[in-house]
Amino acid sequence: MSELDWAELQAQAKHTLDASGLFCPEPVMLLHNVVRDAAPGDKILVLATDPSTVRDIPKFCQFLSHLLIASGEHDGKYCYLLAKAS
């Protein structure tokens, strides 16, 4: 993920969840709370250090019909931008 992409993701996000240092299942549990409080269509940026999020965040989005807009790595963290389903 380039610096430009990273800045774009940050600019698009209405909510940010920094789950750095947390391990499965905590990042997804916290994401569920953020999504619950977000409005439909809101974009959420998730930052995590747990490699299991590479599997868990996309499955979370697929199962609950949220749109996973982007995923990648930046500064040693896994980054995801998703939009809450309507």
From TrEMBL:
Its EC number is 2.8.1.-. Residues 17-41 form the UPF0033 domain. GO terms for molecular function: transferase activity. InterPro entries: TusA-like, TusA-like_sf. The keyword Transferase applies. Keywords: Transferase. Gene3D superfamilies: TusA-like domain. Belongs to the sulfur carrier protein TusA family. It holds the Pfam family TusA. This is Sulfurtransferase TusA. The keyword Cell membrane does not apply. It is an enzyme of class 2 (transferase). The lineage of its organism: Bacteria, Pseudomonadati, Pseudomonadota, Gammaproteobacteria, Cellvibrionales. It comes from Simiduia curdlanivorans.
